[in-house]
Amino acid sequence: MNRFRTYLSVTALALAVGLAGCSAAGTASTGTSITGATNSNSGTSAAAGTAEAVSLDTLAADTHYDADDLTWDTASEVAVTLADGASSVATGTSSDAVKVDGDTVTISAAGTYRLSGSLSDGQVVVAAGEEDVVRIILDGADVTSSTGSPFVVQSANEAIVFLADGTSNSLSDASTYPDTAEDAPNAALYSQADLTIAGSGSLAVDGNFNDGISSKDGLVLAAGNVTVDATDDGIVGKDYAVLLDGAYQVTAGDDGFKSDNEEDEGRGWVLINGGTLNVSAGDDGIKAFNTLTIAAGTATVEESEEGLEAQHIVISGGTASVTSNDDGVNASGGSTGTSSQGGGMGGGMGGGEMAAGDYTVEISGGSLTINSQGDGLDSNGDATITGGTVVVNGPTNDGNGALDVNGELVVNGGTVAAAGSAGMAVTPGTSSSQSGVQLTFGSALPAGTTIQLADSSGAVVATFVTAKQAASLVFSSAAITAGEEYTVYTGGTAQVTAGIGEGTLDGAQQQGTVTAGEYTAARGPGGR
């Protein structure tokens, strides 16, 4: 039998968001239930252990979000009917804060405004005071503009777009805008103030000029069933972009969901704290200038150049699935540190290493699945894993690796399976406390191949099914004991069609043996 090269892999400590679960429901004074920011924790993996969502108290301290803003007295609502050439405040309500000028409806004071009807070529504008909270209920409202943005928040303390239960709403902008200055509107739903989207209704946003939804301050998605189709970026919150609940489907020509404040310290961060987010992007799927955190919910990047990108990437819960043409998870960019591209050598081993910068990937819970053509999990600094499940279906070319870490790569817990090419093997740092193995095959295995490890008693301790061609596999879990010998098999039975699952050795073929904790130096492309 051939003896396989062995290799412990991947990372250690992740930032534990570790706070109380996130739930809140708004209730109008009439007792009518209003969906606000109820966190369903949909998609949270049992593998996440005790990982929990970020608490509402913490969110309130770090963002503009206040669940109380999602409650109001329905008797105080101002009803506005939208109609081409005939928009008006509905009979029975009145407000000096609503002005109709042709097909432009302007709201200039705090309050709750219920909009219904349609404008085929018009605009809704919020121009309120700096301390005003303006709540806009879309109740079967459709607004299209042929000259710019159909919905603009020029000024307010906070604007809340609330999608009425059981209603469908839409916003569609022009393909060209007359004003393209830096602070001019550039999205179908555009806000200069903090923006919250809530309610259980639906909203379709077509960003034909540039972005779909854009806040030049903070953005919180508390609920809603929202689809965004944008020429450039899908959803942008400058200071922060937070998903608490709801279902958001984004198709974007450039980045999908992001926060891009590069000037203010502590800003430019993204948090997925519940709900579902599905992104198809021409460039980055989910991106933060500073920190990108997935704590709960489900985030799926169906198409991208790079799936998740930020200076610091934290996964403490929930379910994340990434498909990318380049790197799947990429800790790079940001404001500090020395950036490097590729060639990462975990634990500082091997030749041609790059300097590590202030970049981190930290995984402590949840489930992360990557399918990348470039590097799978890539950090231009350190990477640590202490919990959760990480599956990487990495590159088939030897110029990239399933795992690529320029600093220290540490695994102290969780389950890791990283399959891909064999040309860029990365060894772990010496700080790792959990053992593992690396299998390097003489020739690439085809997609759908079942790979299994059995201990000295013949018990199966790992079953992995390749999602695409793979020439190597790094596997680490609590079931692997350093210094123990394991027998490698291909074939047999598996209860999954791809990834990690359970299996048996019925019909399997023995390929060789490995010893956990015996590592080889990193190899460059084509190395042997």
In brief:
The protein is mainly β. It has 1 helix and 47 strands. The strands form 5 sheets. The protein has a 13-stranded mixed beta sheet with strand order 6-7-9-11-14-17-20-23-25-27-30-33-36, with no helix packed on it. It has a 10-stranded parallel barrel with strand order 10-12-15-18-21-24-22-19-16-13.
What's the topology here?
Blueprint: E1 2-3, E2 26-27, E3 33-34, H1 56-62, E4 78-82, E5 88-89, E6 98-101, E7 104-107, E8 111-119, E9 123-127, E10 133-144, E11 151-155, E12 158-163, E13 168-172, E14 187-191, E15 194-198, E16 202-207, E17 211-215, E18 218-221, E19 225-230, E20 235-237, E21 240-243, E22 247-252, E23 257-259, E24 269-281, E25 284-288, E26 291-303, E27 306-310, E28 312-315, E29 319-324, E30 329-331, E31 360-363, E32 367-372, E33 377-379, E34 382-385, E35 389-393, E36 403-405, E37 409-411, E38 415-420, E39 436-445, E40 450-454, E41 460-465, E42 470-476, E43 485-490, E44 493-494, E45 499-501, E46 503-504, E47 509-515
Parallel strand pairs: 1-47, 4-8, 7-9, 8-10, 9-11, 10-12, 10-13, 11-14, 12-15, 13-16, 14-17, 15-18, 16-19, 17-20, 18-21, 19-22, 20-23, 21-24, 22-24, 23-25, 24-26, 25-27, 26-28, 26-29, 27-30, 28-31, 29-32, 30-33, 31-34, 32-35, 33-36, 34-37, 35-38
Antiparallel strand pairs: 2-3, 4-5, 6-7, 38-42, 39-42, 40-41, 40-43, 41-45, 43-47, 44-46
Question: Which key features would you list for this structure?
Answer:
528 residues, mainly beta, 13-stranded mixed beta sheet, ten-stranded parallel barrel, disordered N terminus, disordered C terminus
